[in-house]
Structures are given as structure tokens and as C-alpha cells.
Amino acid sequence: TLVLGIESSCDETAAALVDGNRTIVAQRIASQDEEHAPFGGVVPEIAARAHAERLAPMIEGVLADAGVALSDCDAIAATAGPGLIGGVMVGLVSAKALAMASDKPLIAINHLEGHALSPRLADAALEFPYALLLVSGGHCQILRVDGVGQYRRFATTIDDALGEAFDKTAKILGLGFPGGPAVEQLAREGDGKAVPLPRPMIGSGEPHFSFAGLKSAVMRAHDSGKYEIADIAASFQQAGIDCVIDRLQIALNAMGPVPTLVVAGGVAANKVVRSALEELAAAREMRFTAPPPRLCTDNAAMIAWAGIERLQLKDFAPDPLDIAARPRWPLDPDAQPARGAGV
Ligand code: ATP
Ligand code: MG
Ligand code: FE
User: Fold this and answer.
1) Which InterPro entries does this entry report, sorted A to Z (predicted)?
2) Are the CB atoms for 166 and 183 separated by under 8 Å?
3) What is the DSSP letter of 256?
4) Is the pLDDT of residue 65 over 70?
5) Residue 342 has what pLDDT?
6) What are the φ/ψ torsions at residue 160 (nearest 5 degrees)?
7) What is the per-residue pLDDT for 176?
8) CA 275 remoteness from chain centre
9) Given ligand 1 and candidates 183, 267, 295, which is best to mutate, with the most ligand atoms within 8 Å of its CB?
10) Would the pLDDT of 339 be above 80?
11) What is the complex's ipTM, to 2 decimals?
């Protein structure tokens, strides 16, 4: 099995070929950091234009790298949401055109499903069910994954995602964009106990997240002029991790026994986050697994892999060529919003 994957939901343009043996046969990725850096965040219109310019030659390049033709692929998988709608449309429409031209099935992938299944691309031993902490730029959720397409959400954020909090902290501290890796690096030189910061939601019996108050506290600490920025970075990171661990305990208790704890999404690239989760898993006698950092942040290999997982389902059916791009698309359609807030 060979699937072409396309990702364009935020600010990475990516294409990849993945086979049924979990081999990433070829992949290319172009980040738009330079385009968006002057604005301190992703500008949707600039992102869509950059995807439109880069995607077609990138797909040609990936096929050339692998020495295969489109006709050698078994399906074309593309992110169909959630994300910035202009970018999603560029990738999805490209995939439709390729599917039509090659007479191959189109598979419209939920970007969050790409993140959710990425640990199975990296770790062949990872079986369902597993507990998933999905921590990215736009989402912060705890889910029970019982199979492909079977996601039950136990927690979400009532305001910001954890990755967003890293990005905002980086902006406050003047570290530029994107912020996560910069905060992690600076935090290594700081003291995580130096700055008193809140741990929002800790003690709540519901496992939901909140990071807006933490971000405001970071801003006040910075404005006070009393602290080194490395200490603020380290203290912020520690507060975020404390929240994640506390919320996970509540969610795991509610979830019922699952053998494995899994983390995915951009923040899963963070080494301190990973080791805190590893400790939690050990304490609960769970196995822990996380994809390598390059599979945590946005990429097309995880989209191709989700396509392979879908293709291998007994009841697989290709998606229709008129399927719409979706700016919002919850993984668990039955999940109730936390206190009426975001998905
Ligand atoms: P979503 O997947 O929710 O649609 P996204 O695709 O923009 O959002 P990802 O690419 O999965 O998000 O992750 C990007 C986020 O991960 C950014 O907020 C970034 O700051 C964060 N991130 C990346 N590396 C690290 C790191 N080493 N430490 C902390 N955060 C990180
Ligand atoms: Mg990005
Ligand atoms: Fe993502």
C-alpha cells in the first residue's frame, strides 16, 4: 500500500508518501515562518497564497524523490480540516484534482486524526485502545482512542491551547515566532520555581484545561521587571506541565483502564513535557509512547498514514469529490463543549 499525503491546514506546506509497512518513502515540508514572523503569528491570506505556490511542485518533488508515479499510489489523502480554510482548500482541491486525474480514491483526513494516529506510524507496537493527550497550536484535549474513527473526548480547553500559550509567552518575552521551541530552549537556563505563576483548573473535578490566566500572569511577571526572562520561561513551562499532569490524572481515572499513554501534536516535541508524561505513565503502570519530534509538529506523513489506516478498514469508502473543507471539525462529534467554550 502506498498513499500520498497532503497537509496545508496552518503554516506548513507538506507532502509525503507512506507505505503500509510504516515506511516514510519520501517527504518534503516547507515552513512559512519567515513570511509570518513580521506579524508575530500566522496571517491566513499569506498562508493560503504560500500553499498555492508551493504545493504542486512539492508533490512532483516527493514523487520524484521516491521514483514513483501517481499511478503507483493507492489513494490520495489530504487534510480537509480543521484549520485555516484558505490553506485547507488549497490542499484538498489539489488532492481532488489528483484523485480525479489518476482515478484513485480521495481520502479526506481530519487533521486532528492525523495527529491522533501519528504515534502508530512511529510505533508499530501501539495498539488500541490508548489514552491520548493531544497538545498542539489550536487544540488541547484528552481522548480515549478505541480505533480508527473511534475517539471519545474527556477534556478540552475552555480558552487557549497549550501550544498557543507557549507562542504567547514567547511573544511576551520577545522570543519571536514560532514560540514553543524558543521557550523550551530558554527554559533550560532558567529556574522553574523562580516565578510564582497560577495553575489554572488544578483541583477541578472536571478534567478541562484553561491557559488564558497563565498567559496573563506571565505578562504581569514580565512587566514587573522583577524576573529574568529565562526564569519566566522555565516557570511558565513548569506551570503548564503541572496543569497537564493534574488534568490527565482526572481524565485517566474517568476513562477506565487503558494500557498506554500517548502524546501527539506540536507541544509533544517538548522534551520536558515528554519526560513528565513518561513519569506519570510509569507511576500509573502504563506504557508511554510519543512520536519523534518531526512527527509531532505538522507534517504530511501523519496525513498519509491516517489515509493508510482508513484504507485498511473493512468498510472503507472513498470520500466524494464534492466533500467540503471544514474550518472546524471535532474528532468526537458527541463531546460537549467545556462550559460552552471552544471545540
Ligand atoms: P492544530 O494541530 O491544533 O490545528 P497546529 O497544527 O498549528 O494546530 P501543531 O503544528 O501541531 O499545531 O503544533 C504547533 C504548536 O506546537 C505551536 O503552538 C508551537 O509553539 C508548539 N510547539 C512546537 N514545538 C514545541 C516545543 N518544543 N515546546 C513547546 N511547544 C512546541
Ligand atoms: Mg507551523
Ligand atoms: Fe497540527
Assistant:
1) ATPase_NBD, Gcp-like_dom, KAE1/TsaD, TsaD
2) yes
3) -
4) yes
5) 46
6) -85, 155
7) 85
8) 18
9) 267
10) no
11) 0.99
User: Which segments of 111-242 are extended strands (E)?
Assistant: 130-135, 140-147, 150-155
Judge whether residue 343 has pLDDT over 50: no
- pLDDT at position 270 over 50: yes
Closest C-alpha to ligand 1, atom 29: 180
Would you say the CB of residue 266 lies under 6 angstroms from ligand 1?
A: yes
3-state secondary structure 281-337: HHHCCCEEECCCHHHHCCCCHHHHHHHHHHHCCCCCCCCCCCCCCCCCCCCCCCCCC
**How many other CB atoms are there within 10 angstroms of residue 228's CB atom?**
14
Q: Is 338's C-beta closer than 6 angstroms to any atom of ligand 1?
A: no
Q: How far is the CA of 180 from the centre of ligand 1 (A)?
A: 7
Instruction: Tell which one of 117, 272, 298 to mutate to probe ligand 1, the residue whose CB is within 8 A of the most ligand atoms.
Output: 298
**Interval 126-160: pLDDT, tens:** 999 999 999 999 999 999 999 999 999 999 999 99
Handedness of CA 184, 187, 192, 194 (dihedral sign): negative
Cell numbers placing 190: 532558567
CB 306 within 8 A of CB 117: yes
Beta strand spans in 64-105 (E): 75-81
